[in-house]
């Protein structure tokens, strides 16, 4: 058919510029159509040849099939042929944009080639401004080059040519450095040609490995290991020599000496708090790191630690242990908080201690014990332990943590730091829940607590510092600092000095009571300290008064009265799903009456009470708790008619109505043990002698007289 015939191409049109069409590569649809079209069009324009006549001659395969299916009039149109080929073989706008976004600078590719390809991809989906093209160009560079360009001055104000020029320079410097390093490096293997020279790609990809720094052990002086893994001993423990104390005592030398003793060892025992105490003393007597000090207390403490280390060095252990079970010992004192992590087989994995700051005297000892428990759990979690046995010698902390983990009871505390305590206890509970820890809490004796040694320092150090606190430093107005430090005088009055010392001991011990403060004061201050002085210090302590606002003793009273049926106690109790109104005589008889209730409301309670009053008379006084049944208007009206005084016990104090509460327990125990009804248990309670021997002491043996004035008063108001 005429429509299917391929139009002939004029040979003169093709050869007018003496162009050999074989110079233009054939296009079959497998290569980039944009690049092929651009190159062929430029060549034809350079030779002065009609490009529209050359295109059909260089199409093959699928590309020629696309051209052949065009209408005859469209085949002669260069724009129609270009549109058909681009639609068939070029990227669409979506694919071009995806390639534009993911385009990165390839290894060995120059910055200009990379930019040109970005431009080509951008033109396929409509083009982008130069600013957007500049951002995409920088984003596709290697990390090092991108950071250098972005860190340069006025990087935001650079135009696209300036950005390309800067990238060209940065990439050129990196390439030169890489080639130089690869050339200087010895050849890897025997490959290559002519004496083992590397090709260009191998040179560009070569990298010189960094030589690791040699590690030197200060314990033996050899290379290749640290003191913690020294085969001759890991520092102070495991057979290594104990380092001598510094000859020139400065803060820097003391800290360095203490660091050599404990810094790299997992287990140090008493040495850890002692070293921390020595460093604290060095901080107190020096201002700068290199100030020389001749402080006698510091010298004696250093000598004590050194001599004790020579006799028995506690530092030992290696940083190697695996498992998911551990025992965490925690303890705290007025000096420090200590933690010991122990394996189930009895080996100590790690210990740690933290000196309490100077202002921590205002923190209660229970708070310090709780902080030690939190730190112990954190240390165990760092070892990867999931089954933790937390052991403490504080009964209060044991109750707080155990109740929080088991959910058995809510936290009850009235301390000044109640919210801080709740926050720490909740932290332990959340830690166990989120990390799926199995935590058990055990109460141990203080002498059995392994962490106890980490909370103590020699008592001579405390006594010396306490004696020093009694002295005040004075200086003349014209004297220098050295002369000022040399003049020491005693305080204004001996009594004030002793009281101040007792106050310091009381704060350092964690604000205990009179008895314990007296013990510490007689141990650390003087054997002549009196109990009256200690009591005066404790009762006037602001911290103790804020935590325990009632330091005086209350005079204990009694619910019992001498006359029979003068005062009765009543309550509503429950047994085996049924409610009972209980009334008991607070006099010598302890006679009780239990009435079953259909509904525990005010109507039924007042009806039963009125029936009891009619049978046995009305008492002078009724003692009840704060139940809404007893607080209602109906009961108030009843007791007003009978002329009875109604008293309520204190809130949250069940002991305020202890007579009836004790009766509840006894009757319920009788009913449970005999497996009988409540009425039979009440009968047994009333006929059982109170002293266990004489029948006259039974509650039912006492006479419960009727109170005539109460009945008369009732009949006067309600005649019948």
UniProtKB/TrEMBL annotation:
SUPFAM superfamilies: Retrovirus zinc finger-like domains, Ribonuclease H-like. SMART domains: ZnF_C2HC. Residues 547-668 form the Integrase catalytic domain. It holds the Pfam family Integrase_H2C2. GO terms for molecular function: nucleic acid binding; RNA-directed DNA polymerase activity; RNA-DNA hybrid ribonuclease activity; zinc ion binding. Residues 215-232 form the CCHC-type domain. Its EC number is 2.7.7.49. It comes from the Eukaryota. GO terms for biological process: DNA integration. The keyword Nucleus does not apply. It is an enzyme of class 2 (transferase). Keywords: Metal-binding, Zinc, Zinc-finger. PANTHER family: PROTEIN CBG26694, PROTEIN NYNRIN-LIKE. This is RNA-directed DNA polymerase. It comes from Amphibalanus amphitrite (Striped barnacle). The gene is pol_40.
